[in-house]
């Protein structure tokens, strides 16, 4: 049995100090719904856990003013309920309600959800069973020449094609959210897109957080496009399953013309994927089913399928098209 040191921090400063003092073997723990799973699988083997769940002020949910602001320790279920009552940003509430189970949503935090690690079966297999560059850098990637049905068709590299698993991050990318952090160098803020790294030749470096840095809040600008939005998710079964393909779409429609549009993709890429080329296809035009389908195909024009996941290209294009039509309908109501 492996012994683990444990520190329960009551402030951000004490949390960061404990983490830095413990060194590379330290991990923060909040809801624990991801970390404990990875510890059981041997993917994560921390020697020191720093519990940040007791730090006051990190679980606030603010919906007044010009921004939505969610403390990183706010629970997924609580945020989904608050957004549902607000009734103005369905892309956000839907991405949370369609993630995991109710039990998980009542434990998992919105900040921790941003840092989920991939569900690639080769990554999550036992140590030494399959080569995986995310677990053991330089060991190779079994998925590239193996069973790759669930792997990415966008943003992959010769070192890794593992899919980014989240729903919530995809919706946040579509609404151009920012995250706030606290670490050894103090506070900073960044667009959520800058949190994630493409695998390139260093897939073990998934996030841009500095050593000991904690996500403290998520900030989303309020826009008309957020009100006419949807999170459309297709999966093997209706509940408790990760996306084969998903699309977060937000539209600002005047009369029948699309003034502004944002499209992000999930289940098909190595990071939450912004489909800017598809946005350009529909911006400034009247949306029709044919135009929506064209935008969907443009979103996947640079896709690179493997042996078994080529179906994601057509599926993904249709998911984007359907999401555009759903969001357009909502923007008119």
What's this model, at a glance?
The chain is built from 13 helices and twelve strands. With 333 residues, it is an alpha+beta fold.
Structure in words:
This protein has helices spanning 12-22, 35-41, 76-86, 90-97, 102-105, 110-113, 121-124, 142-145, 168-174, 224-227, 276-282, 289-299, 311-332; strands at 5-8, 26-29, 48-51, 61-62, 67-71, 178-183, 186-191, 214-221, 228-234, 245-254, 257-266, 273-274. By secondary structure, it is an alpha+beta fold. The strands form three sheets. It has a five-stranded antiparallel β-sheet. Helix 2 (35-41) links the parallel strand 2 (26-29) and strand 3 (48-51). The longest helix has 22 residues, at 311-332. 48% of the residues are buried. The mean pLDDT is 95.
Secondary structure elements and pairings:
Layout: E1 5-8, H1 12-22, E2 26-29, H2 35-41, E3 48-51, E4 61-62, E5 67-71, H3 76-86, H4 90-97, H5 102-105, H6 110-113, H7 121-124, H8 142-145, H9 168-174, E6 178-183, E7 186-191, E8 214-221, H10 224-227, E9 228-234, E10 245-254, E11 257-266, E12 273-274, H11 276-282, H12 289-299, H13 311-332
Parallel strand pairs: 1-3, 2-3
Antiparallel strand pairs: 4-5, 5-8, 6-7, 6-8, 9-10, 10-11, 11-12
Helix pairs in contact: 3-4, 4-9, 11-12, 12-13
């Amino acid at each position: 049995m492996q012994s683990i040191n444990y520190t329960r921090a009551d402030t951000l400063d004490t949390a960061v100090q404990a983490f830095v003092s413990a060194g590379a073997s330290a991990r923060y723990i909040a809801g624990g719904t991801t970390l404990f799973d990875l510890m059981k699988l041997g993917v994560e083997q921390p020697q020191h856990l720093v519990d940040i769940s007791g730090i006051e002020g990190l679980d606030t949910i603010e919906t007044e003013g010009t921004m939505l602001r969610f403390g990183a320790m706010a629970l997924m279920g609580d945020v989904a309920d608050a957004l549902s009552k607000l009734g103005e940003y369905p892309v956000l509430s839907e991405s949370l309600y369609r993630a995991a189970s109710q039990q998980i949503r009542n434990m998992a935090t919105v900040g921790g959800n941003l840092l989920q690690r991939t569900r690639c079966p080769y990554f999550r297999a036992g140590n030494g069973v399959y080569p995986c560059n995310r677990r053991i850098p330089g060991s190779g990637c079994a998925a590239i020449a193996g069973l790759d049905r669930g792997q990415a068709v966008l943003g992959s590299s010769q070192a890794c094609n593992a899919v980014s698993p989240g729903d919530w991050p995809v919706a946040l990318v579509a609404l151009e959210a920012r995250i706030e952090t606290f670490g050894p160098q103090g506070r900073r803020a960044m667009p959520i897109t800058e949190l994630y790294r493409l695998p390139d030749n260093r897939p073990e470096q998934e996030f841009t957080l500095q050593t000991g840095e904690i996500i403290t809040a998520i900030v989303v600008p309020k826009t008309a496009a957020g009100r006419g939005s949807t999170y459309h998710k297709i999966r093997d079964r209706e509940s408790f399953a990760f996306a084969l393909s998903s699309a977060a779409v937000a539209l600002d429609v005047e009369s029948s013309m699309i003034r502004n549009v944002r499209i992000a993709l999930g289940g098909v890429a190595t990071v939450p994927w912004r489909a800017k080329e598809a946005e350009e296809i529909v911006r400034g035009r009247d949306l029709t089913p044919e135009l929506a389908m064209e935008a969907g195909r443009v979103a996947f024009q640079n896709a690179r399928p493997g042996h078994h996941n080529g179906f994601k290209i057509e599926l993904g294009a249709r998911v984007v098209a359907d999401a555009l039509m759903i969001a357009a309908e909502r923007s008119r109501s």
